[in-house]
Amino acid sequence: MSRRIVVLGAGHAGAEVVAALRAGGFTGDLVLVGDETAVPYQRPPLSKAFLQGTATAADLPIRPRSFYDQQHVDLALDRRADSIDTHARTVRVGARSHEYDVLVLALGGRVRALSDPVAAGATNLHHVKTCADVERLRERLRPGTRLGVVGGGFVGLEVAASARDHGAAVSVLELGPRLLGRVCSEVVATHVASVHRRRGVEVRTAATGLRLEADQDGRISRLVTDQGDVEVDEVVVGIGMVPETELASRAGLATNDGVLVDVDYRASAPEVFAIGDCARVVRAGGSTRRLESAPHAAASARRAAAAILGRPAPTDGAPWFWSHQFDVKIQMAGDPDTRPSRWVTRGSVSDGSFLVFGIVEDRIVRVEAVDRPAEFTQTKPWLGRPIPALIDRLTDESVSLRQLLTRH
């Protein structure tokens, strides 16, 4: 194949799509454009091992630089695309124009910022998106540092746990009524909150009316909420991300909280694909879904690569996510937009080792595991399958899940 493929975005999705294209037999020109100086690296460890100091920048690359040399991938790093012309099939990157036969958007997203005007100029406010972001935060963490974390999702809680390992005094402020409100069951959320509190993290939920107060130097000194104030030395904001769609919108592509794509990640212009966090898939029936996770970034990259190469689409597994907080491993699988009608718990929540199954009619649609990785792996393939005779037996630990599911 002599076509030229340009990939915009050198994160997880971008790295995976160039690898999948080469593995699938693509021999044409392949350009990967990224706005950081480093080769594509893993993001999940940033708020965990990298912030804790147990991993270094050298541990983060998804593949070594030599891979891109050997696979003849033209790395255009420390560059940002300025415009796309889908009619001329060109991308403007600085002073250079790249022609393409196929364009892949793997642009991810930008951190969601607080609307408080104090946040814009604060020198002690941090986000967790890049290696440089976390290096800056890590340098500020000392025993006794008062860290305020705004947002009780995975990133905020992982930062809170890592900061406690540094000896920081940590307060987590969550606007919603509980932690992890968008992603997991109340059983798991309550357990996670108790884990943090036992480790000395102050957890406040329903912390409405948030306002920042700064000193004369512009540093945030206090987080003010309806539940009272929190004195801080440093602040981390982890309230989600906004998909990067501006470039696509200016190019005339259809967007709506993400670049709209079909199930093979084709966008609304010919020979343009969007993958990873910036892609919103339009499903049968008109519903849409956008996922933010490294597993989804890789899966969407592989599926788009197959479509580009004219090969059969790989089988899509259920969406899944994971988190490490302190010494606790949390895993979950299933469409987060699906609302189970009931939840079934297997194991002991008080002992800190259990699974929670989300049930709709006679099917498991969600599975969440706390420190049960083997059973999580065994259960994932059963998501969506009808197992009416087994649902009420999921709580019976006298029979292993492997035996239970094999017998069905």
Automatic annotation (TrEMBL):
Entry superkingdom: Bacteria
Domain FAD/NAD(P)-binding: 4-301
Cofactor(s) annotated in UniProt: FAD
Reductase C-terminal domain: residues covered: 320-405
Keywords attached to this entry: FAD, Flavoprotein, Oxidoreductase
Protein name (database record): NAD(P)/FAD-dependent oxidoreductase
Organism: Nocardioides plantarum
